[in-house]
Design goal:
The protein is an alpha+beta fold. It is built from 6 helices and 8 strands. The strands form 2 sheets. It has a 5-stranded antiparallel β-sheet, with helices on one face. It is rod-shaped and about 230 Å long.
C-alpha cells in the first residue's frame, strides 16, 4: 500500500533535518468499529524515535476535534516496518469529515485518508513536507505552475489529472486550514491563558512547597527534640526497669520468707489440730471412763445393797436359828418332861432332835453362804475402787497432756504471729526480736505452773 504524505510541526524543522523527510506511514486499515476509530499501518524511518500518546485531529466544515488514543494497544511504541495499531473513541459519523490528521510526536504528524476512501497506488506516495508553511503554500500555486510541460503519454495525462484533483482538494483544504488557523489562534489564546493560570498555580505550588519545606524543617526540629526526649525517657526507663528488677528480687525473697512462715504456720496448725484431736479423743476416753466409773459405782451400790440384803437375810436366818434353838430347847425340855410320860414323847423328842440338827445344818450353810457372799462383794468393791482410782489417774494424765498440748500450741501460735508480723510488715523486726524472749519465758512459766498444779 502506498505511503501517504507526512507533515512536520513547525518546531521540528530544525530538529529532524534530512532524516525527518524520510519518515512515512503506510496505512493498512482506517475504519470505525464498535464506537472506535481504528488506525492500522506501518511506519517507515522511525528507527530510534519514541512516540507520545497519539492524537487524532478530525476536521469538518464546522469544527476541529481532537481525540487521544486508547492505551490498550500501547500505541506510543512503534518499530520500523512492523504493524502499528491505535484506536480512538469515536462518537460521530464520517460523512462530514474533510480530512484527518494523526500526530504521534511533537514533530511528527501525518494526514490520513478518510474512512472508506479508495487507496492510492504505489506510485502516488509522496515524500514528507518540510513544514506546515510549505504544506499550506501548496494550494496557493496556480495550475499553470504545476503544468510545466505537456504530457507526452497517457500516463502523464493521468498524473496531470490527478494533480488537478489534488489541487482542487488542496484549495478546499486551504480554506479549511484558514478556518482552522483562526480556531488555532483562539485555542492558542486560550492555551496562553491556561499557561498563565498554570504559571500562577505553579507559583502558588512553589509558595506552598516553601511553606511545606518550612513546616518540614520545623517538624524535623521537633522530631530531633522528640528523639532527644525519647532517649532521655529510655534512659529513665532503663533505670526504672533496674529498680523494678531489684524490687522484684526483694519481693521474691520476701515471698519466699513468707512462704516459709506460712509453711511453719501450717505445721503449727496441723500440730494444733492433732493436739485438738488428741484432746477430743482423751476427753472422749475420759467421758467413757467416767461413764464406766459411774456404772461401776452403780454396780457397787447395787452390790452393797445386795450385801445389806444378804446381811438382813443372814440376821433373819440367825434369828430363825435362835428361834429354832429356843424351840429345840423348849422341845428338849418337853422331851425331858415327856421322857417320863411315854414312848410317844421319846419319838417326838427324836423328831425334834432331828429337826434341830436339820435346822443347825441349814443355819451353818446359810452362814457360810452369807460369809462367801460378803467376801465376794468386798472383793468386787475393792476391784471397783481400784478401777475407779485407775480411771481417775488416767483422766488426770489426759488433762495434763491436754494442758501441755494447749500450752505448746499457744507458744507455736505466738512464735508464728511474731514471724508473720516480722515478714508481713505489721510490726517492726526489732520489736518482734525484743518480745520473743519475754513470750517464751511466759510460756515456760505457764508450763511450770501447770506441772506444779498437776
Amino acid at each position: 500500500m502506498a505511503g501517504y504524505p507526512l507533515s512536520s510541526m513547525p518546531q521540528a524543522r530544525g530538529q529532524g533535518g534530512a532524516d525527518s523527510e524520510q519518515i512515512a506511514f503506510e496505512p493498512e486499515r482506517i475504519a470505525v468499529v464498535a464506537g472506535r476509530l481504528e488506525v492500522a499501518g506501518r511506519w517507515r524511518g522511525v528507527r530510534g524515535r519514541r512516540f507520545v500518546r497519539p492524537t487524532l485531529t478530525a476536521h469538518t466544515a464546522a469544527e476541529r476535534r481532537r481525540v487521544l488514543a486508547d492505551l490498550d494497544h500501547k500505541p506510543w511504541s512503534a518499530a520500523d516496518g512492523q504493524r502499528w495499531l491505535a484506536t480512538f473513541r469515536w462518537g460521530q459519523g464520517v460523512d462530514e469529515l474533510r480530512h484527518l490528521e494523526l500526530a504521534v510526536a511533537p514533530d511528527i504528524a501525518v494526514e490520513l485518508p478518510l474512512p472508506g476512501a479508495p487507496a492510492a497506488g504505489p506510485s502516488e506516495a509522496l515524500t514528507p513536507a518540510k513544514g506546515e508553511s510549505h504544506r499550506r503554500s501548496r494550494p496557493d500555486r496556480p495550475l499553470s505552475e504545476i503544468k510545466t510541460r505537456q504530457p507526452e503519454s497517457s500516463g502523464a495525462q493521468a498524473r496531470l489529472e490527478l494533480a488537478e484533483r489534488r489541487l482542487a482538494q488542496a484549495e478546499r483544504e486551504r480554506d479549511s486550514a484558514r478556518a482552522g488557523e483562526e480556531r488555532a489562534r483562539r485555542e492558542c489564546a486560550e492555551l496562553i491563558r491556561q499557561r498563565d493560570r498554570a504559571l500562577a498555580e505553579r507559583d502558588g505550588a512553589l509558595a506552598e512547597r516553601d511553606r511545606a519545606l518550612a513546616e518540614r524543617d520545623a517538624a524535623v526540629a521537633g522530631r530531633d527534640a522528640a528523639l532527644a526526649e525519647r532517649d532521655a525517657a529510655a534512659t529513665e526507663r532503663d533505670g526504672a526497669v533496674a529498680e523494678r528488677d531489684r524490687a522484684l528480687a526483694e519481693r521474691d525473697g520476701a515471698l519466699a520468707e513468707r512462704d516459709g512462715a506460712l509453711a511453719e504456720r501450717d505445721g503449727a496448725l496441723a500440730e494444733r489440730d492433732a493436739a485438738t484431736r488428741q484432746r477430743q479423743l482423751a476427753l472422749t476416753e475420759r467421758d467413757a471412763a467416767l461413764t464406766e466409773r459411774d456404772a461401776a459405782l452403780a454396780q457397787r451400790d447395787e452390790a452393797l445393797a445386795q450385801r445389806d440384803e444378804a446381811r438382813e437375810e443372814r440376821n433373819a436366818a440367825l434369828r430363825s436359828r435362835e428361834r429354832m434353838l429356843a424351840e429345840r430347847d423348849q422341845a428338849l425340855r418337853e422331851q425331858q418332861r415327856a421322857e417320863r410320860s411315854s414312848e410317844k414323847a421319846r419319838e417326838a423328842q427324836a423328831a425334834a432332835a432331828r429337826m434341830a440338827q436339820q435346822l443347825a445344818g441349814e443355819r451353818d450353810q446359810l452362814i457360810a453362804e452369807a460369809q462367801a457372799e460378803r467376801q465376794r462383794l468386798v472383793a468386787e468393791r475393792d476391784a471397783v475402787a481400784a478401777e475407779r482410782d485407775g480411771l481417775l489417774a488416767r483422766c488426770q494424765e489426759l488433762e495434763r497432756e491436754r494442758d501441755e498440748a494447749l500450752a505448746a500450741h499457744g507458744a507455736a501460735l505466738v512464735m508464728r504471729n511474731a514471724i508473720v508480723g516480722g515478714h508481713g510488715g505489721g510490726a517492726p523486726g526489732w520489736l518482734a526480736r525484743t518480745l520473743m524472749p519475754a513470750l517464751l519465758a511466759g510460756v515456760a512459766l505457764v508450763l511450770l505452773l501447770a506441772l506444779r498444779v498437776i
